[in-house]
């Protein structure tokens, strides 16, 4: 989801009954902050805590850390106690921002498959405990193949599939899974009960102000939806305000 909507009352319609934890979570958060951060923050928090159950000091690779969700995931990964964070993405400038937000090292994704596999294997040789994958597609396939070649024997790498920005499918030889201790899992609304989703959203919002969690967003009046939607991209979330007039 690349945009959010906030109503005149301050309750983002998509959050429904989340109004109570939102109200108590951070009085210093303004309405557009809540709408911008709630969904991607919940997504990465779940992907780290509910599915692979991140342990303090573990190494996490955020695959696709240059979008708004990925950059927020880097911050949340650091907040939740990761010892080392690797960020990947195509946009060199956004990768630099990911480093400033907490990533220890970065890998720029590109067309050179051989070089990319080499960089993955370098990091895997040091040990990667968890992958949070926002991309899927060929890059995720290369990472999994590299993990089978260079990963630590019998030490599971937990690969959490969160998004499919790059592609909706991958081609993965069965031998990759047979030859490694990779654990594939997903993270989404169907993997965690709704009451827990609500609790986690409250946790994210309570953590946002004291830990300076940052997300790039631009507020727009809902009247400008048709004009603004095609201009939206993954580097900045758009928050549409229902009660605002046309710009």
Your description of this structure?
The chain is an alpha/beta fold. It has a domain at 47-186: 3-Layer(aba) Sandwich (Rossmann fold). The protein has nine helices and nine strands. The strands form two sheets. Strands 4-3-2-5-6-7 form a six-stranded parallel sheet, with helices on both faces. Helix 1 (19-25) runs parallel beside helix 8 (194-208), helix 2 crosses helix 8 (194-208) and helix 5 crosses helix 6. The longest helix is centred in the first third of the chain and has 19 residues, at 31-49. The chain is globular. 42% of the residues are buried. The model is unreliable at 7-23 (pLDDT under 50).
Would you summarize the structure shown here?
The protein is an alpha/beta fold and 247 residues long.
Question: Largest beta sheet, briefly?
Answer: 6 strands, parallel
- Stretches with pLDDT under 50, minimum 5 residues: 7-23
Listing every helix as H and every strand as E from the N terminus to the C terminus, the arrangement reads EHHEHEHEHEHEHEHEHE
Quaternary arrangement of the chains shown? single chain
The computed structural class is: alpha/beta
Helix content: 40-55%
Let me know the number of strands: 9
Under the CATH scheme, which architecture of one domain would be assigned? 3-Layer(aba) Sandwich
């Amino acid at each position: 989801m690349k945009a959010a909507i906030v109503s005149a009352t301050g309750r983002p319609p998509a959050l429904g009954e989340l109004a109570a934890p939102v109200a108590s979570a951070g009085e210093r958060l303004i309405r557009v902050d809540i709408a911008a951060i709630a969904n991607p923050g919940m997504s990465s928090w779940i992907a780290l805590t509910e599915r692979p159950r991140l342990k303090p000091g573990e190494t996490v690779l955020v695959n696709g850390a240059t979008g708004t969700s990925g950059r927020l995931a880097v911050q949340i990964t650091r907040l939740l106690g990761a010892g080392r964070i690797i960020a990947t993405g195509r946009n060199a400038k956004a990768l630099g921002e990911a480093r400033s937000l907490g990533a220890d090292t970065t890998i720029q994704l590109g067309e050179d498959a051989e070089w990319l596999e080499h960089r993955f294997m370098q990091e895997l040789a040091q040990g990667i405990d968890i992958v949070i994958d926002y991309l899927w597609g060929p890059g995720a396939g290369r990472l999994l193949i590299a993990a089978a070649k260079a990963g630590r024997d019998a030490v599971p790498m937990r690969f959490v599939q969160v998004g499919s920005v790059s592609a909706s499918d991958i081609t993965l030889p069965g031998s990759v899974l047979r030859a490694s201790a990779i654990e594939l899992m997903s993270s989404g609304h169907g993997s965690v009960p709704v009451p827990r989703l609500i609790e986690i959203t409250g946790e994210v919002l309570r953590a946002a102000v004291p830990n300076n969690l940052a997300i790039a967003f631009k507020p727009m009046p809902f009247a400008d939806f048709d004009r603004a939607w095609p201009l939206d991209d993954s580097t900045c979330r758009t928050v549409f305000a229902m009660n605002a007039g046309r710009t």
